[in-house]
Amino acid sequence: MCGVRTWLPFLYSLNTTVNTTTVNTPGHNIPVNTTVNITDNTTTVNTTDNTTTVHNTTINTITLNTTDNTTTVHTIIERASFLHQQCSNLGLSKGTYNKPPSGFFVIKGILGVCRTGKGASFSWTKLEWLLEESEINENIKSLKPRAVISVRHPLRRLVSAYRDKYLGGLPIDIYNDTYREKKDLLESWYKRWYNYWLPALISSGRVSSEHLYATYNNNSSSFEDMQELIITAYGGSEKILLKTFQKATFSFEQFIHHVLWTHELKLPDFHWLPIFNTCHPCFYHYDYVIHLETVQEDVRDLLSLTHIQLNSDEYPFPALHVTKEGTSSDSFYFANIPSHVMQRIFQIYALDFKLFGYSKNA
Question: What is its EC number (predicted)?
Answer without folding.
Answer: 2.8.2.-
